[in-house]
Amino acid sequence: MDQESWRRVKGLFHAALGREPEERQAFLDVACGKDTGLRRQIELLLAKEENAGNFLETPAMGYTAVTQTEAQRMTEVLPGRQFGPYRIVSPLGAGGMGEVYRAHDSKLGRDVAIKMLPAEFAGDPERLARFRREARTLAALNHPNIAAIYGLEESSDVDCLVLELVEGETLHGPLPVAATLDCALQVAEALEEAHAKGTIHRDLKPANVKVTPQGRVKVLDFGLAKALWGTEQGQDLSQQATVTGIETQAGHIVGTPAYMSPEQARGMDVDERTDIWAFGCLLYELLTGKRAFQGETHADTIAAVLEREPDWQALPARTPSKIRELLRECLQKDAGSRAGNIADARRTIEEVQRGRNRWRVAAIAAAALAVFAVAAALWLRSAPRAVDRSQWVQLTNLPDSVTSPALSPDGRMLAFIRGSSSFQGTGQIYVKMLPDGQPVQLTHDGSHKMSPVFSPDGTRVAYTTVSGLFNWDTWVVPVLGGEPQLLLPNASGLIWIGSQQVLFSEIKPEQVPHMGIVAAEESRIGQRNVYLPEDQYGMAHRSYLSPDGKWVLLAEMDHDHIWLPCRLVPMDGSSTGRRVGPPAAACTFAAWSPDGKWMYFNSNRGGGGNHIWRQRFPDGSPEQVTSGPTEEEGIAMAADGRSFVTAVTLSNVSIWVHDTSGDRPISLEGNAADPKFTPDGRSLCYRIVKQTPDQFRFMGGEPGEVWATDLKSGRSESVAPGFQSRDYDISADGRQVVMEAADSEGKPQLWVASFDRQSAPRQIPHVQGRTPRFGAGGEIFFRLEGFTYSVRADGTGLRKALSEPTLLLFGVSPDGRWIIAWGPASGSAMRRAFPLGGGAPVVTGATELHWSPDGKLLSISGGPIPRGRSYIVPLPPEQALPKIPAAGFRSEEEVASQPGARRINEIEVVPGTSPDAYAFYRGAAQRNLYRIPIP
Predict the structure, then answer these.
(1) Co-location of 728 and 682 in the same domain
(2) 805-846 pLDDT, tens digit each
């Protein structure tokens, strides 16, 4: 790095440092532009200052801890270097405990965090030996809320600690009370586990706690304060007080002043109660957004810890009284008077959460009854006029799925997405001239697309692309043809609110996948928040501006990716607004009438599928516009307000079975999902849900009962009556069913029931997880926090089954040797088969794979295979996979060329126990656009 570049880095670093923390990201957006390397260097300097220099008595502007050489080494020299099997990829941060890098483990094919230990280790063999002993103890900690230590790698000039790579953002406040309690509970559970093993953290603070994209809290650097610095003269390591990043002539004091207990600050003996003090500081900061003890200098901060009380008036008014009491117990300056056991804190939080949930359920139930009573009275008094279906005008007549209509400002063009509307589907943007023009394809790439919209002048179509789970970008393509161009990264559901002004959804980096609505110019200049969900993982997906520009309708999800009723918020961002439209129902799209007098909604109110509803603005009552055996998706309002365009499909999705006697329906009531044959081939299981497979697949599964139909008698019955599951699987012996269901707090739990219904479902103790799948030996594989684990039905034998992250788990081969999953390294559309016995995974491509219960047949659909087709492939003896190309299936020809491959003209075929028996969906493959007049 030359001197001019270094001067620029330093100048921007100090400029960012002089701003409030919440203003720095916006400043860097403008100052660094698209220069990601420059931004990365500045962010590293800021991280170093935050972790190591916050409390130096030297003023921040006099900061000199990171030199030009160090910054260059972190960003330019070390990336690419190899330490054993680990190759440095990029820097992650720096602090008093060392520098941290992302690295790739070539042996296990996973990414890890590499921590370069401080230079003091190189010349101190005794300290390094002590650290190795202590690291072995820390490596024994095994808890979902504790980031794991994998090992220690040594080289000639540096020692590297290999740690679990925790994706996500560090914890910070203020958070809503409910979110605070959830995070604090997970931290308490981590401390409780560690204390039971005799380990004290010694440096607990928000910067050492991360929240993963899945919502799991992970405590980092557990016990490293003791392991790294220990004692200076070989004393009992547990007796050394510590303060991170503050060097004195006497040596290192390890810990951070604002979170140190009084006894720790005085250099006295410490035990578990010093972590309880830090836990109280963290809980206070999550509630208030500021530190319990702070000062301009190190000495001022220590003085506050020793002498002053926190500002108790800063606690939010809604803080429960028991939490206030818990804070005072944790922050007693006399360790003897302090809460002595973190388990007590954990139990207090659980008690408060149970109380809040009971209150919320009662309040919601009372409100729902009141709303229902009022709505029923209004409905009886003035029922809405039904839409005459004979007046519906079909605008597209295509054999596959057409969704997401958008009308040009002059009403002459119609844009839409043609292709699979499932999250794994690619879909392409099309336009057509109205009324009778031929559809013209504008895009030709493999990305998943959503939310097309015309620019104000009608010359471009903007749309959202999704790569991975949470990478959402807005692209534009000319309506006359041309290459798509990236308009805004990290922007989805974009609409224009002026010639150069836009409204869009943005994932907030501090809490992925927290998604809010923001307004800005096309260049993102002048960006401001319009709405941020109070739910820390809430996602506001789509927004619709009122004709007068004062109000915004929006569709949003909760933390479980479940659609909520639509919300109405002021455009100036002055409040979080209120719910509108049909209550207690999913609302996925919305629109305004051109005069602003009506709000329109896509809603599944009443369980009859998705239909169009409307409500007079501002305080009318919801009324249904469409009903009947179809479902409608999307609302493109005509400029004259006399009609709208929507995508129409059959609302009933049935499961059918084909065998030697032909095709016959198995489920006719409700929408069916997840067909699975029993191992003996005599029955077919499925779930009855409220939404079609295209709609629920990405959302984690709409809850529904598991049913079984005897294929000989045709008799159907519920496997677990009244039990609502999101996913399920059948054991190899056909005796058990494992199900995923949410508990009262919305957390995914695993349950096991007997297939013969002789016993009620029982919960697998102490295990949370999603997408459960039985293995050949009766163990249950499931997904938790981005990894695949296995456990026995009684809750014993919990282990990580795959070392590589897996974001989605699809199935386990009947012989128990392979797992089909999608991991971050696979790419946005690639699935891989992971061998459970070790070895390299096999890329299967973007295809759906389903085994027959006996493992002799495999069905292949999706990906390169056109929608509405599947192939059944017989498997070679003793093999669970056919011969798959190295890059996975990239064409239908590669699948069709498999020995014995048989083409089936149905979607997502699930094979039975013979080549002539298979199950398939019917009723969801076709969706076209209609213009519907408004009554």
Answers:
(1) yes
(2) 887 788 999 999 999 988 766 554 578 899 998 888 888 887
In this prediction, residue 822 carries a pLDDT of: 80
Q: How far is C-alpha 452 from the geometric centre of its chain's CA atoms?
A: 23
Assess whether 704 and 838 both reside in one domain.
yes
Structural domain count, the chain: 5
Q: What is the pLDDT of residue 122?
A: 56
- Answer yes or no: is 686 within a domain: yes
Tokens of 299: 């000495």
Does residue 248 share a domain with residue 321? Answer: yes
CA distance 634 to 653: 19
> Beta strands of 129-205 (E only): which ranges?
149-154, 159-164, 169-170
**203: annotated active-site residue:** yes
Are 179 and 280 in a shared domain? yes
821 in any annotated domain: yes
Both structure tokens of 879 = 């093999």
Sign of the Cα torsion 71, 76, 79, 82 reads negative
How big is the CA angle at 226 (ends 225 and 228), to the nearest 5 degrees? 70
Tokens of 660: 């030697």
Whether 311 and 457 share a structural domain: no
Task: Give the pLDDT confidence score for residue 116 in this predicted structure.
Answer: 79
**Residue 759 belongs to a domain with what CATH number?**
2.120.10.30
Non-local CB neighbours of 393 within 8 Å, separated by 6+ positions: 435, 930, 931
Same domain (yes/no): 289, 424: no
Which alpha helices (DSSP H) does 197-261 contain, by range? 224-229
In a domain, 588, yes or no: no
Burial category of 526 from C-beta neighbours within 10 Å (exposed 0-12, middle 13-18, buried 19 and up): exposed
> For residue 481, is it left (φ>0), alpha (ψ between -120 and 50) or beta?
left
Give the type of residue at 202: R
Q: Which residues of the chain have pLDDT under 50?
A: 51-67, 77, 231-254, 358-386, 421-425, 651, 692-700, 828, 924-925
Shared domain check, 696 and 782: yes
Q: Which domain holds residue 405?
A: 401-488
**Segment 538-569, tens digit of pLDDT:** 889 899 999 999 999 999 988 666 789 999 99
CA distance 778 to 773: 10
Query: What pLDDT is recorded for position 231?
Result: 44
Task: Report the alpha-carbon distance of residue 259 to residue 207 in Å, rounded.
Answer: 11
DSSP H or E segment with residue 130: helix 125-139
Cβ pair 851, 775 in contact under 8 A? no
* Residues 313 and 452 grouped into a single domain: no
Domain boundary among 9, 44, 77: 77
449's tokens: 């697309």
Q: Active-site residue among 105, 203, 535, 694?
A: 203
Return all residues near 9 (Cβ < 8 A) that are at least 6 apart. Answer: 1, 38, 41, 42, 45, 71
Residue 739 lies in a domain: yes
Token pair listed for 468: 């991975």
Helix H or strand E segment including 833: strand 831-835
5-13: Cβ within 8 A, 24+ apart = 6/68, 6/71, 8/38, 9/38, 9/41, 9/42, 9/45, 9/71, 12/38, 12/42, 13/42, 13/45, 13/46
CATH of the domain at 103: 3.30.200.20
In tens, the pLDDT along 742-792 reads 776 667 889 999 988 777 789 998 888 889 999 988 899 998 887 899 999
Q: Which residues contact 799 (CB under 8 A, 6 or more apart)?
A: 789, 790, 791
Q: State the DSSP H helix or E strand holding residue 5, giving kind and residue range, or none if neither.
A: helix 3-17
Output the pTM of the full model: 0.42
Place of tokens 């944790």: 330
For residues 520 and 552, give the distance between their C-alpha atoms in angstroms, rounded to a whole number: 15
Q: DSSP code of 146?
A: B
Q: Domain ends where: 117, 145, 165?
A: 165
